[in-house]
Amino acid sequence: MTKIKYWALVIMGVLLGSTSSYAAGDLKPLPGQKAVRVCADGYNLPYSNREGEGFDNKIAELLGKELGLPVEYYFFPQRIGFSRNTIKKVDPETGLFLCDLAMSIPEHTDFLKPTKPYWSSIEAMVYRKGEGYELNQLKDIATAKKDGKPLRIGIFDRGVATKALLDLGLADQIQYFQMMPGDARVNAGRIINEELAKDTIDVALLWGPIAGYYANESDVPMIVQPLNELGEAFIFSFSMGTRYQDKKWNALLNEFLAKNKDEIDAIMAQYHLPSLENVNPYPKKRVRKDDDD
C-alpha cells in the first residue's frame, strides 16, 4: 500500500467515524410513532393554548422538529382529573390513549412518570409601577401600612404567601380569589389583567410564571418581584410526564431535554419567569429519595 492510499483510507475512516457518531446522537421516534401527541390545556397561558402561544407549545414544536414528527394536541382543562381524562384515557374508537405526553407536571408526582425537570420557579409579587412605593419583600407591604398606605392585596385561595401575610398582621387587607373558577377558559392571569391593571387591588401575589407573563403583557407598567425570601423549599420544578409503562418514551424525552437544554432555556426566557438569583437558602428544599417515586 502506498503512503497516499494509506492516508486516504485514514482520512476516510475519520470522516466515516464522524458521520456515524453524528447519526448515533440524532434522536429517532419510537417504532411506529407517527406524531408527538400532547395533552394540554387550551386556555392556560403562559403554558399552552389552542393557538400554540405557550412555552409548552413551543417546546413541543421543538420536540416534533427533533423527531421529525407533527405535533398533535388533545385539549382538556389542566386541573383535577387531567391525567385521568387525557394521557390515561383510551379512545374507545381507536383503542389508543388520547395522548402520550403531559407537560409542566410537578417533578415529583405519583400520577405520571416524570422526566428530569426542565424549568423551575417561585411565587412572585406584582404591583403597578409609579405608585409612590417600592416593594421588595412582603414586610414592605406592612411598612406601607404603617406609613399610612394600606395596600389592597390580591391572593388566590391556598396561596403559599398567605400565612406570611397573616403573620404580618395584614389580614384585613387581603382579598381572596378563586384559583379555578367554573369557566375553564378563565385562568389565573385575570388577577393581573383584570384586578391589578384596573386598580381594584394594589399588589398581587401569585405563581411566578403567571406573574411574569401577564405583567409583561399588560398595557399598565408593572413591577415583578420574586419572593425569593420564601426560601429554597418554595422553588418548584416541573417535568414532562408519561405513563409509567412507557419507559422508552420517557427515556427518549430525557434525551431530548438534555440535548436541547439551551434552546429550551431560550424559549423559557421569552416568558419572563422571575429570577431565582439570591433565593434564601432556608428553609432548604427537601431532597426526595429515588424510592419516593
Automatic annotation (TrEMBL):
Keywords: Signal. Residues 35-275 form the Solute-binding protein family 3/N-terminal domain. Residues 1-23 form the signal peptide. It comes from the Bacteria. InterPro entries: Quinoprotein_dehydrogenase (IPR022448), Solute-binding_3/MltF_N (IPR001638). This is Substrate-binding domain-containing protein. It comes from Methylophaga marina.
